[in-house]
């Protein structure tokens, strides 16, 4: 039988699924957060004066970071001072370099060896315009045995955790319902699942998610509707909750902020404008900050505010470098309180 769960502080009318209590607070404590990245990447970021087709583009200032949703979330959680373990497959020279960089970030990891090479992601910062060009590779093909080993490592790492964060895309060979299997595993362990993915991986999840964090584009793709207004976005998120897919939805709106939708309430979070250095990984920073807030037993609304502070701090960093704890805490002090909204987008100050 699982041990008695500790309640997570949420909005007054929101009842979360039961989950395990927190481990002892010490340097050797088991992680409260376990992340899963099924498609990690070696993130390469370079600068160029101008990007033109056909011509050679002379680049400089190459930067290498370990990337992919769950790997980024783990690095950002660690930067915020919380215990975390990252689970991910790794293969080939790029996989070895990702693992070395994860170790340098002081992130404990459960690596699953795979036959094919871990992918790269390539970002070019065009100095003449300030534009950013992002090239994302599909990733290595994982055979069923490798997928099963990822789930085995996840089950072992998350046995005493509070939260599992499954973040990022699914690589070739992994079926679209893989995250449904992850949700079932979390249910068996009594661990809460936070899911940030897109495409088929998002559409094929039917139940078992605690918080789902799509972008508005990903939410459109999930429900097959344009979702041009806030009320339509709110209704789409509420539909996922009513169907039992998730208990809450956080919709990231980029420069327009974010929405939080629970079974009975909706909240609009204004953005915190800054001059961005790199937007790569900002969504992962938001997930990391939100999850850290939940491990501290903060209400979900406050945890989303902390996530926005983390995402804002990440925008100041080059490539996919981790934000600093000091910047996150500084921004958290000035992130505006959200507006409570109805299905008709009528707003009142929370």
TrEMBL record:
GO terms for cellular component: cytosol. It holds the Pfam family PfkB. InterPro entries: Carboh/pur_kinase_PfkB_CS, PfkB_dom, Ribokinase-like, Tagatose/fructose_Pkinase. CDD domains: FruK_PfkB_like. GO terms for molecular function: 6-phosphofructokinase activity; ATP binding. Residues 39-324 form the Carbohydrate kinase PfkB domain. Residues 1-26 are annotated as: Disordered. Keywords: ATP-binding, Kinase, Nucleotide-binding, Transferase. Belongs to the carbohydrate kinase PfkB family. This is 1-phosphofructokinase family hexose kinase. It comes from Mycolicibacterium novocastrense.
């Amino acid at each position: 039988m699982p041990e008695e769960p500790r309640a997570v502080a949420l909005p007054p009318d929101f009842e979360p699924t039961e989950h395990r209590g927190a481990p002892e607070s010490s340097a050797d404590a088991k992680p409260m957060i376990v992340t899963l990245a099924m498609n990690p990447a070696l993130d390469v970021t370079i600068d160029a004066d101008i990007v033109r087709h056909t011509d050679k583009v002379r680049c400089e200032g190459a930067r290498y970071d370990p990337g992919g949703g769950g790997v980024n979330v783990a690095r950002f959680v660690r930067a915020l001072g919380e215990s975390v373990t990252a689970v991910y497959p790794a293969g080939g020279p790029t996989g070895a370099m990702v693992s070395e960089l994860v170790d340098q970030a002081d992130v404990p990891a459960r690596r699953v060896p795979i036959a094919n090479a871990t992918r790269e992601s390539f970002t070019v910062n065009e100095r003449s315009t300030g534009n950013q060009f992002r090239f994302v590779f599909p990733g290595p093909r994982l055979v069923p045995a490798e997928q099963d080993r990822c789930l085995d490592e996840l089950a072992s790492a998350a046995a005493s955790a509070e939260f599992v964060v499954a973040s990022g895309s699914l690589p070739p060979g992994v079926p679209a319902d893989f995250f449904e299997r992850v949700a079932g595993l979390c249910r068996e362990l009594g661990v809460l699942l936070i899911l940030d993915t897109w495409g088929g991986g998002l559409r094929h999840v039917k139940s078992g998610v605690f918080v789902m964090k799509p972008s508005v584009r990903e939410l459109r793709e999930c429900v097959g509707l344009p979702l041009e207004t806030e009320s339509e976005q709110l209704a789409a998120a509420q539909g996922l909750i009513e169907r039992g897919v998730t208990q809450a939805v956080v919709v990231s709106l980029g420069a327009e902020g974010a929405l939080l939708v629970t079974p009975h309430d909706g909240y609009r979070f204004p953005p915190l404008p800054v001059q961005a250095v790199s937007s790569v990984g900002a969504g992962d920073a938001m997930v990391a900050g939100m999850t850290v807030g939940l491990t501290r037993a903060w209400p979900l609304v406050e945890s989303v505010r902390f996530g926005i502070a983390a995402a804002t701090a990440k925008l100041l960093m080059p490539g996919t470098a981790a934000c600093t704890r000091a910047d996150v805490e500084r921004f958290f002090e000035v992130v505006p309180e959200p507006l409570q909204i109805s299905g008709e987008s009528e707003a009142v100050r929370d």
